[in-house]
Amino acid sequence: MPVDYRSQTVLLTGASSGIGAAFARALAVRGANLVLVARRADRLASIADELRRTADVRIEVVPTDLSSPAAPTEIRRVVADRGVEVTSLINNAAIGSFALFADVDPSQSTAEVAVDVMAPVALTAAFMPQLTGAGNGFIINLASVSAYFPSPRMAVYSAAKAFMLSFTESLWTELRGTGLTVFAVAPGATGTDFTAGMGPDAAVLTAGKLRAAEDVVATALRHLERRDPGPIVVDGGGNRLGVLVSRFVSRRRAALMMARVFDPARRPPSRTPG
After folding, report:
1. What separation, in Å, do the N-terminal and C-terminal C-alpha atoms of the chain show?
2. What is the pLDDT of residues 122-139, one digit of tens each?
3. Residues with active-site annotation
4. Radius of gyration of the chain from Cα atoms?
5. Strand, coil or helix: what is 87?
6. In 82-184, which residue ranges form alpha helices assigned H by DSSP?
């Protein structure tokens, strides 16, 4: 269905790079106002300056570390103080680690749950009155193809993304008829800096041809503009095939298969999109 982007003020997390930055650029060029949230204040300011030069839209920046339990409440306070009414929300921010769970610092695992699960839930709850009140906005949650498979060496991340799928499906059902469109987009391996800092073993995650961040955003916005968008859209033909296969494989077999896929001994060199 037609989306009036010019009537939207979109709160976007993880906006300073990768898929988040691609969302920011795509929405700004369509005329949406933006509230950009990310941890890295310098990169957030840089993309905000870029968008102000290239699009006639309002850009607000809220540098915030979403691993802090107080972050969603603080974001809501800052937005209210600036007189901004949020009509749409994109929960894009995520962090991950690549190692056996027993080898991951417990603080890192806790931070992953905070950013990947608790922050999206808290932000959605904090802004729900504004979102439903607008009557024509959307919630887009970033899931992952990893949500469909157990992911040894990414145990917390894949579990968090499985949570996002289930959470989104429930919201999609609850909010039908309110004018608020809700869905999750599930990308696979994408050419971003997500794996930066995960160590050399994470090279297995970027083996083969990668989707571009702009591809993921294009998939999401096409889905948003459908007449009756469903609760989940998977980005990329190969990823859709993988999700289909997951429905016919036992959980035991899937876990063992993914253990082989993520075996660092494979460690091929990383490749760039295209």
Report:
1. 31
2. 999 999 999 999 999 999
3. 157
4. 18
5. coil
6. 106-113, 119-134, 155-174
